[in-house]
Design a protein that fits this description.
With about 110 residues, this protein is mainly beta. Helix content is about 0%, strand content about 55%. Pfam families: NTP_transf_9.
Length: about 110
Amino acid sequence: MAEHITIRRASGKWSVRAGGAVLGESSNVLELSEGDYPPVIYFPREDIAMAFLDRTEKSTHCPHKGDASYYSIVTRSTTLENAAWSYEAPYEAVARIKDHLAFYTGENVTVEEI
């Protein structure tokens, strides 16, 4: 693994919400820390209501994790474009995040320990 990336199982139970809807809750999230960036919570895909997510055409490349695919969150009131991402075929060094989703947090999306 790149020396500046650490992945650990986060303690407690976590939730992700968007547009007033609970997209998922999990006690099996991973916390990825990368250099000076804030830690990112990755939810197991099976703990997320995937019916709220639509895969988009967007993709990005990280030299340490691989290629990320993006998803928009569709709620009753809005569509949050490219609000979640997933490394579906991550590099071996970060293979633990395979089949997990992370979310951009802010005004419309919250990720929190409950």
